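Table 4 source record.
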Amino acid sequence: MDDIAPPRFTINQVDFQRPLAEWKPRLADHGRRRHLCYSLDFDTRAMLLEDPQEGWDEEPKRLHLENRTSLIESLGREFGTQHLERKLKNFAAIKTKPFSILAYHNRLFDEVRTAFVMGAYYPALVGACALGERTLNHLVLDLRDHYSHTPQYKKVARKCAFDNWALAIDTLKAWDVLLPAAEAPFRTLMKLRHRSIHFNASTYATLREDALEAVLQIREIIEQQFSSWGLRPWFIEGSLGHIFIKRDWEENPFVKTFYLPQCPFVGPNFAISFEQGLQYHDLHDYGDGAWSDEDFVQAFNTRSPEDVVKTAT
């Protein structure tokens, strides 16, 4: 009697409450899917507070000024109209909130930014430093079991928290977790933390400057290490309009821990809708075989409107 082939397991049969590692390898077409980096957080409103650029045509200039007026009214409602000019200056000084993958840091950065905008400079300074320390702790504690074979592991294996920034930064650097562009602001923030948290009378004279520097450094850390956009080693290059994770980086401990749980596993013809909250729509089965990252991007970039999965609307 011929053996009966097992039923084909496809994405529409997945219980997404189950861990990713449990169902992803079983997908019949997993070789033709990539993780889409779309679960993100950002705020670019500060750009609207800038003056129109020289050489702008009259219509873009008019629209920019209208949008700026509307934003100022909105920020007045959000932060209060008392001392609004100072609050607008503070809001603009932090610049944009970076495009970031959703994680623990998003809400906490919002609170730090709000403190600075309101003029609560010492809480903003301390909050930014504390968020930097929390980020280091998350990275070391969440990832260390992946590096139990390394010389650095024995220095961090038994600790439940880290206030030694140099140890944490050096460990993450040795594990190739930290990007160089994130390591530098961590070290700058470390110096600010040591000078500001421990008693130092000179801090009173530079509260706003120190607070702004601390907020900008943690902002840079988030933008560089947790970016959901731009050029990063784990992003496939050349895709048009969306960002995908490289196949070879899916087993990287940092990417696997912080990115993949937030990034839906899609094929090139997926669609997104917002009618009932953020929803992803995709073909159930892309067939057998594995695509390279280049093959996937080619299929995504050249898809026609007819290829894209239809949503309810």
